[in-house]
Amino acid sequence: SRSGPVMLSVISNYAVCITAHAITHQAGYLAVDEYVRSGMVIGLGTGSTAYFAVERVGQLLANGKLKDIVAVPTSERTRAHAAQLSIPLATLDEHPALDVAIDGADTVDRGTLALVKGGGGALLREKIVEVAAKKLVVIVDESKLSEGLGPHFDLPVEIIQFCQTHIRRQIEGLPSLKGCKANLRMPYVTDNGNYIADLKFDAPIADPSQAAAELSDTVGVVEHGLFLDMASVCIIAGKDGVTTTHA
Ligand code: 5RP
Question: What keywords tag this UniProt record (predicted)?
Answer without folding.
Answer: Isomerase
